[in-house]
Each structure stands twice: as structure tokens, then as C-alpha cells.
Design brief:
5-stranded mixed β-sheet, 4 helices
């Protein structure tokens, strides 16, 4: 089970954490972005549940899906982060979730790409930032 708070109130995780009601309640998670095609949401009321159907592979289909939708995703995060703790969960917690956070930071801060990668990798050296965030302009 992997989870990490990358920014205040913005968490990422693997799919196993989705079944931990204790984690979700203890960290006051109010919004879950489930970046999987098949894993279920936790059975907890009063949580906004959004499915982002990425496959378990790091491939062009995921890249295309993210390129088409990342503005909506990061704007949604930005509109809700001040009032809600958000969990972004992907299959392993090391690929799509941190990439979405990297895109969020890129678009809502003045931090350069290299520094974004450095910041994220300082949280966990196993993050697999599998594509260049400059592909999202």
C-alpha cells in the first residue's frame, strides 16, 4: 500500500489505498480521482468520486487521454483544493498520479520543469515520471 501527500491536501496513492476507509476518513479525503479502468471506489458516502479511465500500461493511449483531458483535470483540482483534500489514485501510485500533480504544479506555479521533477522525486525516488510535461502545452 503506497500513499504520499505531495502538496498540502493533495495526496497520491496506489489502488490498494482505495479500500482503506480508515486512511480516507483519517485524512479527511473529500474527492477521489480514480485513475484506473477497473478498481472500485471505497464505499464511503459524502465523497466525490471521479473515474479517469487510464489503463495499467504506460502507453500512447494514456498519453493521448491525458493530453485531451489534463486541463479539465488540473482545473478541477485547482477549483477544489482550497476546501477539500483530494486523493489521486492510480494502479501503482508512481506513474499517472504524480504526473497529474506535476502538470498541476506546472500550470499553477512559476516552478520550472526540472524543479518540479526534483520536488516530486524528493518525496519518493521511485516516481516514474514517464513522459515530458512539455508535451502538455
Amino acid at each position: 500500500m503506497f500513499y504520499c501527500e505531495l502538496l498540502s491536501g493533495l495526496w497520491i496513492s496506489d489502488v490498494n489505498i482505495l479500500q482503506s476507509k480508515k486512511f480516507i476518513i483519517d485524512n479527511d479525503i473529500k474527492i477521489i480521482l480514480n485513475c484506473t479502468e477497473i478498481f472500485d471506489f471505497p464505499q464511503i458516502d459524502d465523497i466525490k468520486k471521479i473515474r479517469l479511465p487510464f489503463s495499467s500500461l504506460q502507453d500512447n493511449n494514456n498519453l493521448s487521454l491525458l493530453q485531451k483531458n489534463y486541463i479539465k483535470i488540473i482545473n478541477y483540482i485547482n477549483e477544489n483544493i482550497d476546501d477539500n483534500n483530494i486523493l489521486i489514485s492510480c494502479y501503482d501510485g508512481f506513474t499517472i498520479s504524480p504526473l497529474i500533480v506535476a502538470l498541476y504544479i506546472k500550470n499553477f506555479s512559476k516552478i520550472d520543469n526540472k524543479s518540479i521533477y526534483t520536488i516530486l522525486l524528493s518525496k519518493n525516488k521511485n516516481f516514474n515520471l514517464w513522459c515530458d510535461i512539455d508535451l502538455f502545452n
